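Hey,

The postdoc asked me to send both predictions to you directly instead of through the lab channel. I've kept everything plain text so nothing gets mangled by the mail client. Protein one:
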Amino acid sequence: MRHNRPVRGLTGTGPGASLSQQTRDTECFACYAEVRQMLAGGGMDRLPRDPRKLREWAMVMSVVGSLTAIDRPLIPAGAEVLIPGSGAYSEGEFESPDRTGLHPVESPETFPQSCGRPHSPSVRRRVPDNIPEDPMTTSSITPQTTSANRRPLYFLASSLFAVRLAAVVTSVALPLLVIHRYGVGLDSGLTAALELLPNFLFGPFAGEIVDRRNPRKIAAVCALVGAPIVALFPFTHSLWQIQLLGLASGLTYTAGVPARMALRGRAIAKGHELSGNSLLVLAQRLPTLIGPAAAALAVQIGYSAVFVANAVVCLSAALLVIRVPLRPDEPAKQGSDRPPVARNIVAKVFKQSLPELGRSIGGNPGLAALTVIGCTYMFSSYGMGKFFLAGFSAHYYSRDGSFFGYLVAAMGLGAVAGSVLAPRFRKFRQGVVFVACGLVESLAWSSYAMQHNRFVALSAAAVVGICESVGAVVYYSEIQTRLPDRLVGRYFSFYIALGDGLNVLGSMTIGIVVSSSVSSGALLTAGAVCIPLLVLCPLFLLQRFWRADGWTPTAGEAR
């Protein structure tokens, strides 16, 4: 079957299969575990578990090329593709030559000299020694990268820092502006709620669009549109205008967050998920530490200056995120040949996207466990924990109105420290690190039930911040490793929408409990953090569950 005419002008780089240090992130190696499982399900159980032992990559390259052609789409639906089953053999199926007799060829010019060199035991072929025996998680691979390879990561981290800083400053300055003009009441509370409403209503549909379009462009447009919205807040003349702007700001948040999540896979080189996500988590946590203080100080200058400066920060975020490069196959996807987003997007989300996402999560026990714990954590630590600290401060330190701010600052400092420390845990199994962080954080929350010493309370808040940040780095790294790129936007759009709801539910729950007993609130928060981890502990600790290649291909991929 020939596809010369549709292929011409649409193709990017071909699939590579080299295991050299420079090309470790080639498509074939990245998809090896998925292809191996797919072929095994079809009765072709010939590929070894360790990709280093594969000596002929023709069949793997054919499968990866066919899947890429289906995605573009160059191969029409219902077409048959014949892949010869003989294009794969590995060590043990033949007698390998003595590697001491192999001479490296550095360039075409040195080829004749290499062919003519005598046998020398000191000359050996370099074989990468940091490919895992079983490709469980790429966070254990530590290939070298250059500063040029990390530039996309730096651009994304800087953009994420700018967007997050603008959001934190707005979350402090906007309520102050509303209360200053209109006082405290139901209408002012509704203003804050309207910013979250679009994410509840349109989050899943935004993820569908992100996965089908260019996430870089979506992230940049959301930041550009958000800039004038933020700048207009102090120039409004009635509360309904502020509420309308808040609703519009929420729409940019709904589409922008999953778009930036989808860019992680483009900015972080394969094998560097842990260190890359550590930098991104640091970029997210720093604004929560410096943003509130900066907003409080800036308000003294004037609301107009605060929001206009915030708009400039949003513009810088757009300029930075546009520097994150596309993958080689993505320019072709932006043309007119790409299938448009379905008109009936509601039916598509619930009939296709949700079942496909469910199959992907259900086919990988580690991914399923991470998703469940992520949702329960939004309810427990994010929802219950933050509100509990406010109740704890009001109960024991009612005369010191600033102590709650100290607790939040201590947690922020811990979060920054945790994002810096996270890469140091790469030598340990990430499932074990994730469980350990949750259990230590649970102990820190329970300490509030036993004492109310000022120093111990601040130390416990710092420990919570460290554990939360390290756990977040592991979570994002493993999600990036296990989840197919085409599902990242949809996954995080559903996750964030559900997480926001669980966050509100957790705050309401702990508010009822703390009003009667602060100690009970501390124990309830600790239990909500550790009980789901203890229930799902085998999925994180046992090797057969915590495999990154336990992912089941969907029907579309198995065509």
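Protein two:
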Amino acid sequence: MNAYLFPIKQAIITFPFLALALTVPFLIVQYRKYGYVNKLRSTILYSLLLYAITAYYLVILPLPKLLDNCEAYGSFWSYMQWQPFTFVSDIGRETSFAWNSFSSYTQLLKERSFLQVLFNMVLTIPLGIYLRYYFRCSFRATLFLSLGVSLFFELTQVTGLYGIYTCPYRLFDVDDLMLNTTGGIIGFLIAPIVYTFLPRSEKLDEKVNLSELRVGFIRRSIAFAIDLFVMTIVTAIMSLLLSGATLLTYQLTSGTLDASASRLLSAGLAMLLYFVLIPAVCGGRTLGKWITRIHIVEDVRQSDARHVTWRGLLKRYGLLYFVYGLLDVMNMIAQFGEITMQASIGILFLQFLLILGIFVHVIISMVKGDKLLFYERLSGTRNVVTEGEREARTEAEHKMEASVIGRQEEESDQPSVITSALLAQRKDVEVVHSSVGEASQSPRSKLTEQSEQQSEPAVEAVPYEHEEQQPSHETGRKTYTLGEMVPELDELPRSNITSEEVEREVERLRAKVALLEKREKEGKD
């Protein structure tokens, strides 16, 4: 048992460091793909990382003490086992198991040969669960992926950790391939148990509206770090162009007043280019904002397709980099100005107070949940999540569907003259019913005796089949009759209608039937 506990302990120790190293790439991928970070998805994926580390360590640990291990472990071919089901004979040879003895079953759980078989299957059961639940793989895909992962494990062992060791230090066993693949299939079969306490992976983003999400400070910090790196490169290029110097002479004169002034001017021009002109043309995006899938908008221009103007960007970054420029000017005065020691200390103290004030302002904004900083409030700009074409199309469809449903509900509360005309003229009712009832294929209904007596003499009665049954439309478990869908049919007077009006009424009834089907389906889900 200690042979299995040691790799698990090492995996638990390694996991925090590897998870921390992958945090920024993970966040960027989540921002780019989904537009935000889902906590449940993050938990699932980080648990997958922990499982992957644990499984890999169980395969390779413990490592040999020497790289040249051929004398201790034998030749390459001595670590190949190609006979299937050898584990059955190993269990029979190393244990006293008997089918008709209950005590031998409990003893079996302590035997090395049986535990090795059991752990080989358990090793890949989580893999099958992840493949079916999160990645939504089919049975065939899970089968081949489990076999592929098992083959990867065996090749890792038989190649001596990809050639790091001279000879293999573990056995390449065809039984391990079979048992690992079986474990993946078992995981696939028991994966539906996860659905009882976790939502389906395809529904994790179902109730998320990207247009309503606030851009957090972590996301902004990643974008700022990327932009600051690019800004440094652009500033250096601007300084070289303005000074007309080579890289060597620029390095030699970097400590002079002229070089500091040139660098400050270059930083201002680089800010205008990178943070004002480029975002004004690219819809409020810099490279960092594009990578993290955010952009800048002006509050007064939310409905404008351009999102933000160069004036808004100039106000925003002018306020932000005014603070940066002020700190740089203070440095120049303290370094090159002919001032007393007390004045230099005063300048350093002012710099400290300014930096401390910004830090406190950011902390207070984070604690209060206010995502806007001082330069955003003063400039009337803010960061928003960039919606992809798919999200924008889905949101537009939802809005259109909501407006159609609202219009249909308003129409259903008011009597329809066309509907009463359809009741008066049975031939036209027959047209409507044949159009709507193609999906339901339900029998026709007869008119009530009261409507028969009130019908106009000019309208010839048309006999209906199945007099006892009303027309109906089945949607799942419940059956909706024509009277339930259009209750005003039996109450309103008749009138003459045109074919265009009939077509419009047919479309309205079709939409109503589709709405009933959708509501019934949502009720089931």
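Summary for protein two, as requested: The radius of gyration is 37 Å.

Thanks,
C.
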